[in-house]
């Protein structure tokens, strides 16, 4: 225990002394989450659409005003279909809404009016999002008109649970948290341990009365403390800037995040047992962890859409389970039993990774 | 008859099919400066790692400070010191922090660390640099500091793995003075080196060729036996001898 404390002190001293690297460790996730958080938004704002109002009557003008009322759309009225299509082709608008000449009379007679929505589907995600918003706006409009039915365009009555506004940050922020923590934790440990290897100090430590497990724990604890600060920074940003809700318990959220960090630190340790230089460790941590975590954790692309073999790989991504837990705690306030299996899997992964790394670590010498 | 501090008998270490250390036997006496020579890949480092308790042997016996390398590596570790070519100091810690870290993990008390550390700084004339970061020190200073730290806990044996690599002849000579001083205080020195002139400074030498000890004795004995003018000739004759065999 005494030796462990001496070792931890030795690890903390340089971190403490070099405020620059400490601030990088803390500012990097801050910058990353802000940058990616603002860039990775799938909802649309002020999307230009062309409106070809063939009716030009009271109710159609009202509909257009309604469309422009939210901040989702900027309507550009056109006088012919050709003009509308030209705008669509030149990418000035993303969609065309065509209102039939008999719009008003049909509404007054409680008949189904005809509306046509043409979408630029080059970017299918945006197209689907526009469609969904359009549906929502039209639905509202017709309800206010006191109409008893849904027009053609809106066949499905949608109810969005947990994320009624379809805010994409609800999906991306948990993913971001997991990518950033994974990156920072794994990078920090793998680089720090390979550095000892490169400098030759690891040999001296191993020849000293320090036990390998003390060296490992001594390495992990200071970085776990840094991770705790990172968790705090990221969560504060998530709640303030991105307005993430917190439906469940904050304590639980922090504990689970710490477990995830531990798992990432263990991965960093594993990487360091296999790499001979700091550069290799850094490359492997960046390329080998960041990309799979981003792509295969379900953060951006739905796991269900992946081919089966790839789906199999996603089971090995700690982030997959962590994101799941985060969503449970932040958005659903589910009982712990709902995500206990995910916690178990994370715990198991951490233990297995640690065991393999310890084995590798010893095999080098025995 | 002085006491024996390292006993090695038929020590063998294999990595798969490759025999890195092939049934070597030798003794090292207390206070002796024992030179462990050999070409790259001759098995020096492997043998040294076994003696330091880092690697277990495949077969044979070895005792260091009376402790068995198979089962008592923990006790061995407490009784030895180690310094490598890379000097093994922490660049981003100060001189004093390095001293107190190493002294601390060898279980010295705060009081002991203070006394031993201050006298170490005084001897090396580094007192006014105690709060300097290691990375700002010249190579020669690091080397001396590294050696002094390796013996701060008064080990019975100190293992030096090519300790003079990369330093100039004057610094090397000064370093050997420190080795002599430590030896005169009863610390056994086990040193590997590539510099054959340094071999002459040792009390006894073992010359490894392809995992075996090809020659063992005082520098004078070896020179007579192999009819060589200097250690360089001895080394060449031994290394080539087995090639022809």
Number of domains of chain A: 2
**DSSP strand count of chain B:** 10
Please, how many domains of chain B?
1
> How would you name the CATH homologous superfamily of chain B?
P-loop containing nucleotide triphosphate hydrolases
What structural class should be given to the helix and strand makeup of chain A?
alpha/beta
Largest sheet of chain A: 4 strands, mixed
Which range does the strand content of chain B fall in?
Answer: 25-35%
Strand portion of chain A? 5-15%
| Element order of chain A: H for helix, E for strand | HHEHEHEHEHHHHHHHHH
Query: How helical, in percent, are the residues of chain B?
Result: 25-40%
Shape of chain A: elongated
N-to-C terminal Cα separation of chain B, in Å? Answer: 37 Å
Global outline of chain B: globular
The number of helices of chain A is 14
| Category by helix and strand content of chain B | alpha/beta
Biggest β-sheet description of chain B: 6 strands, mixed
Structure, briefly:
By secondary structure, chain A is of the alpha/beta class. Chain A contains 14 helices and 4 strands. The radius of gyration of chain A is 27 Å and the shape is elongated.
Fold and architecture overview:
The complex is a heterodimer of chains A (366) and B (245). Chain A has 366 residues and is α/β, with parallel strands linked by helices. Chain A has a 4-stranded mixed sheet, sandwiched between helices. Helix content of chain A is 67%, strand content 6%. Chain A starts with a helix and ends with a helix. In chain A, helix 3 links the parallel strand 1 and strand 2 (73-78). In chain B, 38% of the residues lie in helices and 27% in strands. The A-B interface holds A 2-3, 6-7, 9-10, 13-14, 17-18, 199-201, 203-210, 365-366 and B 49, 52-56, 74, 77-78, 80, 82-93, 97, 101-102, 104-107, 159.
């Amino acid at each position: 225990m005494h030796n462990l404390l001496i070792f931890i002190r030795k690890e903390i001293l340089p971190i403490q002394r070099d405020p620059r690297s400490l601030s990088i460790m803390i500012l990097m996730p801050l910058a990353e989450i802000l940058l990616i958080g603002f860039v990775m938004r799938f909802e649309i704002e002020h999307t230009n659409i062309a409106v070809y109002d063939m009716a030009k009557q009271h109710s159609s003008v009202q509909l257009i005003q309604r469309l422009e009322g939210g901040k989702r759309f900027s309507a550009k009225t056109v006088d012919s279909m050709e003009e509308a299509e030209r705008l669509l082709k030149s990418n000035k608008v993303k969609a065309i809404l065509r209102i039939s000449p008999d719009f008003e009379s049909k509404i007054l007679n409680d008949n189904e009016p005809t509306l046509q929505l043409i979408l630029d589907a080059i970017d299918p995600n945006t197209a689907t999002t526009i469609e969904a918003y359009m549906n929502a706006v039209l639905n509202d409009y017709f309800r206010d008109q006191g109409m008893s039915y849904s027009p053609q365009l809106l066949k499905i009555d949608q109810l969005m649970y947990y994320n009624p506004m379809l805010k994409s940050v609800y999906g991306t922020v948990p993913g971001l948290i997991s990518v950033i923590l994974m990156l920072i934790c794994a990078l920090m440990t793998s680089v720090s341990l390979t550095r000892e290897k490169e400098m030759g100090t690891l040999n001296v430590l191993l020849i000293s009365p320090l036990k390998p497990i003390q060296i490992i724990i001594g390495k992990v604890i200071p970085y776990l403390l840094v991770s705790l600060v990172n968790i705090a920074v990221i969560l504060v940003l998530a709640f303030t800037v991105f307005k993430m809700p917190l439906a469940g318990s904050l304590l639980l959220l922090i504990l689970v995040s710490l477990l995830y960090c531990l798992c990432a630190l263990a991965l960093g340790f594993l990487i360091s047992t296999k790499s001979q230089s700091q550069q290799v460790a850094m490359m492997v941590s960046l390329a080998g962890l960041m990309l799979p975590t981003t792509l295969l954790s379900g953060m951006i692309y739905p796991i269900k859409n992946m081919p089966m073999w790839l789906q199999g790989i996603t089971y090995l991504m700690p982030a997959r389970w962590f994101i799941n837990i985060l969503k449970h705690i932040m958005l659903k306030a589910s009982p712990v039993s709902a995500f206990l299996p995910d916690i178990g899997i994370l715990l198991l992964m951490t233990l297995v990774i640690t065991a393999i790394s310890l084995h590798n670590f010893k095999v080098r010498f025995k | 008859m002085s006491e024996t501090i390292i006993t090695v008998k038929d020590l063998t270490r294999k990595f798969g099919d490759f025999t890195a250390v092939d049934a070597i036997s030798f003794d090292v006496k207390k206070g002796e400066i024992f030179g462990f020579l050999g070409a790259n890949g001759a098995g020096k480092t492997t043998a040294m790692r076994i003696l330091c308790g880092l690697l277990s042997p495949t077969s044979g016996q070895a005792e260091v400070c009376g402790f068995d390398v198979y089962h008592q590596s923990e006790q061995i570790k407490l009784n030895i010191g180690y310094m490598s070519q890379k000097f093994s100091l922490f660049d981003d810690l100060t001189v004093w922090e390095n001293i107190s870290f190493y002294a601390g993990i060898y279980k010295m008390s705060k009081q002991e660390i203070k006394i031993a550390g201050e006298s170490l700084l005084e001897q090396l004339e580094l007192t006014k640099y105690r709060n300097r970061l290691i990375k700002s020190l010249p190579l020669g200073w690091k080397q001396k500091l590294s050696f002094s730290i390796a013996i701060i806990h008064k080990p019975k044996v100190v293992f030096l793995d090519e300790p003079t690599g990369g330093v100039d002849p004057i610094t090397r000579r000064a370093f050997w003075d420190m080795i002599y001083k430590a030896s005169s205080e009863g610390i056994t020195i086990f040193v590997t080196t590539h510099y054959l002139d340094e071999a002459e400074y040792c009390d006894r030498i073992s010359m490894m060729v392809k995992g075996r000890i090809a020659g063992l004795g005082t520098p004078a004995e070896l020179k007579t036996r192999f009819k060589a003018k200097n250690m360089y000739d001895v080394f060449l004759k031994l290394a080539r001898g087995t090639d022809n065999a």
